[in-house]
Amino acid sequence: MYWVYLSSIQKMTKSDVQKVIQQNEAHTIKEMKFDKPLPKQLTVYFRNGIHLLKETLPSFLLSKMAELSSFNNPEFYKAQAKRMSTYGMPKVINCAMDEATHLVLPRGVGAVWKSCFKNTLPRWTL
To answer: Which distant-in-sequence residues (6+ apart) come within 8 Å of 104 by Cβ?
Structure first.
């Protein structure tokens, strides 16, 4: 029964695989639109991460940017699927650091961040 199904599946060419990847990338990275007013200029410092001044950004934008640098913890879901204890195991891993005056995002989030905010934040100062 399974072999009949598997024999009916056709192999994908390299170009077909690349088309599927491009279609999925287009769906995952979407530009964010906000109803609230945004600052005209944003000062960004590149040090050990992407440093954003908290006082220049509204709180909803800071939380959205921190959300971009978090991901689901695969170990939590593995343990949950095996019905093991998940006590003390975070469900979501947040890579953003919340300092006194800055929000520090990991450098790897920069490309996603730029594509999400490319038309909403018109001017950047590095």
So the answer is: 48, 49, 50, 51, 52, 96, 97, 98
| This prediction's pTM | 0.63
Q: Is residue 9 part of a domain?
A: no
| Tens-place pLDDT, residues 28-85 | 545 566 677 777 777 788 888 989 888 888 888 888 888 888 999 999 999 999 999 9
CATH code of the domain containing 112: 3.30.780
